[in-house]
Amino acid sequence: MSVREIVTVGHPVLREPARDVTPDELASPEIQAFIDDLIDTMRHANGAGLAANQIGEPIRIAAIEVTDNPRYPYKPRIPLTVVVNPVLEPIAGPDGAHEMVEINEGCLSVPNLRGNVMRHVDVRVRYLDRHGVAHDEVKRGLTAGTFQHELDHLDGVLFLDRVTDTTTFTTWEQFERFHRAAFVERITEFVARVGS
Ligand code: ZN
């Protein structure tokens, strides 16, 4: 297991749609070791998630985990989840509506920049875990936002592409100074309302 280099915006691999992994590949020692590296690298960088192409491999694997995260202290916890060949689909929420939420995001591949993006509040995610077992799950709220961010990576999409109001771009320093308090207040109310 080892911590790998995270590539940054401008590297072509971040813009390349990643390819599916075959069952034989997934079972191989090479891919299992790669998944261990992906998890180690995510944790080392205090990321809420990391996609395979962020460490240079254009294959459809991502790791997601939120514990007590100093980068995102308002995020509800997510147990370690490795998704392989994921498919994400927006769905209606419990009240039948397709709700969106504006989330201030950052990315390990976009150093020192944050911006606001609109995310679906309710999504269905189908994927294989690292053992090849199929999962079909519903994610909600900020957790759903984290899945959308990571799965976007596998399609070559960065959060930068989804920022519609470019005046919301900030460095992490200016976010802390001028924007953090209002965002955390709004998003804490949101998390309390939707439950995740
Ligand atoms: Zn990212």
Model description:
With 196 residues, the chain is α+β, with helices and mostly antiparallel strands. It is 32% helix and 28% strand. A hairpin with a 5-residue loop joins strand 6 (122-128) and strand 7 (134-140). The longest helix is centred in the last third of the chain and has 23 residues, at 172-194. It is globular and about 45 Å long. The chain binds zinc ion (ZN). Zinc ion (ZN) binds at residues 107-109, 149, 153.
In short:
Helices cover 32% and strands 28% of the residues. The protein has five helices and seven strands, in the order ααβββββββααα.
Mean pLDDT: 96
Strand neighbour order, sheet with most strands: 1-2-3-6-7
How many helices in DSSP terms?
5
Rg over CA atoms, rounded to whole Å, is 16 Å
**Helical percentage:** 25-40%
Judged by helices, strands and strand pairing, the structural class is alpha+beta
